[in-house]
């Protein structure tokens, strides 16, 4: 778990170092989303999966149809979505 927390911290640092218009910004968002999702799967903290979904949706927005990494963003969004049974009704 310590290594995962460190990786999340480094992913956040990478986002801080890259301006939003950077060509790899969407990749950094996706990387952080995947790590937060992994931590959610281990600890079950909804804030992690919520954050992962928000970050990956932003990455997906930056990868329109025809972008070479759009399909990986779509797959990641499917992977990080919590099971329907864990989503509370609003």
From TrEMBL:
Domain of life of the native organism: Eukaryota
Name the record gives this protein: Uncharacterized protein
Protein's organism: Boletus reticuloceps
């Amino acid at each position: 778990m310590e290594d995962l927390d460190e990786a999340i911290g480094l992913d956040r640092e990478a986002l801080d170092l890259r301006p939003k218009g950077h060509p790899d910004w969407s990749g950094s968002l996706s990387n952080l989303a995947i790590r937060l999702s992994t931590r959610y799967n281990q600890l079950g903290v909804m804030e992690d999966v919520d954050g992962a979904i928000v970050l990956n949706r932003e990455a997906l927005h930056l990868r329109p149809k025809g972008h070479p990494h759009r399909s990986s963003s779509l797959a990641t969004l499917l992977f990080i979505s919590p099971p329907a049974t864990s989503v509370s009704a609003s």
